[in-house]
Amino acid sequence: MANSDLSRVDAEQAVRTVEGLLRDGKARPPDIRFPQSLRGVVVMAAEVLGLARTTFQDRLKRAKQLHSLEPDWSLYNPPSLPESTEEITVRERRRHSEENKHLRAQLQASHDELNAQEDIRKVLFGLTSAPLSPPSWTLRPMKRGGKLLEVPVLWGTDRQWGEVVRAEEVQYHNAYDPKIAARRYRTFIESGIDLCFNHMVNPDYPGVV
């Protein structure tokens, strides 16, 4: 039936459908945007009646014009809000307090460990913390005479200077101590220098990493 010939029965059905959804709190009126989890009542009512949204909107308009019928928007029953945080039980408050105390203790233990490590570095090795100030050529590519300069990288980590491995303990396959470590490190540096300057074409480096 065209909306221009809307019967009173169809008009009442449209109005009742809207009011039922509002009363049940299943949809919100057109002028209310929250909660966003609820869909608009016009869209839902149109789906309930199997009509397009624009067709149903026009039906509501014609219901008012032809039959002086329109939904009672005050029937909207918004969903209840979640419980306030003020209603947390005493037991939950106690649990939160204990968790907070435990986390603070862990944080303090971590600070103490870092301080102890810093003291060891200062006392035993004479090392102190200082801000990093890397050379500019390590932060961006550099050119000289139109040529992009290469930067050699020597990968030397996990030296384990204090470790001692006796040959008799590993069936004489290997041995290790601070003297061997120093000798190996010297070989490492000298081999790097040899590769960079004696086995490369036109070696020209701003530095080495």
**Helices and strands: which structural class?**
mainly alpha
Total number of helical segments? 5
Rg over C-alpha atoms, rounded to the nearest angstrom? 40 Å
Q: Please indicate the percent range of residues in DSSP E strands (runs of 2 or more).
A: under 5%
Number of separate domains: 3
Helix content: 40-55%
Largest sheet: 2 strands, parallel
Terminal Cα separation, in Å?
A: 83 Å
Give the overall shape, derived from the CA principal axes: elongated
Report low-confidence residues grouped into runs of 5 or more: none
User: Total number of β-strand segments?
Assistant: 4
What is the averaged pLDDT score? 82
What is the N-to-C succession of helices and strands?
A: HEEHHHEEH
Instruction: Walk across the major sheet and give the strand order.
Output: 1-2
